[in-house]
Amino acid sequence: MVDVILGLQWGDEGKGKIVDYFAGRYDIIARFQGGPNAGHTLYVRNKKIVLHQIPSGIFHEKKINLIGSGVVLDPVTLRKECESVSAFGVDYRKNLFISDRAHLILPTHRALDKASEQSKGEEKIGSTLKGIGPAYMDKTGRNGLRVGDLMDRNFTNQYIQLRLKHQKLLDLLNFSEDISAWEQEFFDALEFMRQFNIVSGEYFINEKISDGQTVLAEGAQGSMLDVDFGTFPFVTSSNTISAGVCTGLGVAPQKIRDVLGVSKAYCTRVGGGPFPTELFDAAGETLRETGQEFGSTTGRPRRCGWIDLVALKYACMLNGVTQLVMTKADVLDAFDELRLCTAYVSDGQLTKRVPALLAKKHIEPVWESFPGWKTNISALKNYSDLPEAMKEYTEFIASYLAVPITYISIGPGRDQLVRNPVP
Ligand code: GDP
Ligand code: IMO
Ligand code: MG
After folding, report:
1. Ligand 3 (ion): which residues have CB within 5 A?
2. Counting atoms of ligand 1 from 1, which one is nearest the CA of 38?
3. Alpha carbon separation from 145 to 138, 159, 330, 352, 395 (Å, rounded)
4. Which residues are annotated as catalytic?
5. Of 13, 24, 63, 308, which residue is the least packed, with the fewest Cβ within 10 Å?
């Protein structure tokens, strides 16, 4: 069976930490979409490490980690990351597997990402510039190169053909930066990739499932960045929701059991696009400083705001969330008052739905207010020790969403997680 851990907001909910926490219970940990736009932070032996391409189960010895077919893979990032995990004693040659159907991110995809953002001016998406959009465009446009193509003696030729196509687009966008250094490291990294276990991802995973092994699918980005159901066009280019597990790994929907949705106790977003509960005041600044809300991939300050239950309920619906894991609750420790958005006023109409054209609408949030708990919770061990005011806050959220909150994360450390025994 397959369980899923994915983000319910605009990314950076703390998925990496939660996957690392649960990974020991599974045989295989698999990324199913996205690419190095992801930045998943883990603490291993009290040292911080940020993973972009490799699944967050990599620090558990004897667990298989799979980069699935739905991922777009940058060999250069992969190589750097392999070097940093091996400094922790991880033998990635043994426990990292890559699907031959995963598409490659080429240097020109990164250039196209940059050129496209520059051409958009004020309307830019705020992409991480890792080449994600152009790589997925080449996949759906049926032009892309895949990991399996590396085995083909004709690979360099295929690369040159695609590069020529990209050059025409880059010329149209007036992009004239020299990317020869990127190409050099790309080809070096391709050589490095030859040492990996490259497998037919869909057979690999289904055979393991048939043998009774268990899979934890690790989402990247968040549900509100989903290309179909997120805040289009300010989204990423993949299906970040649970449906993406089936298309990204090649597993049937009946194989999916639990969907653990991860949400912060408040809300953040990095990059452009609508964010109804965004704060521009001292409270927003406090969230950013206390929560250390700076992008794990780009270092950009994250936009901060109160929790948005309208968007969260929408995400629970899209994903079929069976349990909610609430992270960064400790960041709210010092607040006198906490707010939650329970409805939107859009064009004068009260609604509890996320409109498809959210990016074009002016939204006024409707607020519910709760007193803060004013207690340092980061060292607590048991749910029963949590302050009453905090239980009221989380129980209100669980009841609004009609989803149990089974775990509450109270700090970045692997063990700073409290289980709710009776959700
Ligand atoms: P991901 O992309 O969803 O894996 O999340 P990121 O790693 O980009 O961002 C989450 C950040 O919050 C990281 O710096 C984590 O170390 C940190 N973090 C995770 N859980 C908690 C928590 O419960 N409390 C605090 N204070 N920090 C946390
Ligand atoms: P994790 O997995 C937060 C955002 C970018 C931008 C938009 C499109 O760490 O949660 P892209 O590079 O995909 O073209 O960017 O999506 N974005 C993320 N925001 N966390 C992420 O990943 C993100 N990956 C992309 O900031 O707004
Ligand atoms: Mg992140």
Report:
1. 12, 39, 296
2. 2
3. 8, 8, 44, 42, 48
4. 12, 40
5. 24
